Fold:
Amino acid sequence: MSELGMTQRMLAEKMNCTQQYVSKVLKGHKDMSLETICKIENALGIEIIKGPDENGQ
Structure:
């Protein structure tokens, strides 16, 4: 996250959750739901899970 110039607190604010929750997720102490993954993707502007493209690949 430091490469993106974002702190855990900033990510938590964008995800509408606590910094403690973000810390647990990033340390692997908390399982991530698909909803959490989507929130992280949106907050960071990145793609974590990539589905098939228009050509089905």
User: Anything to note?
Assistant: Residues 2-44 form one domain.
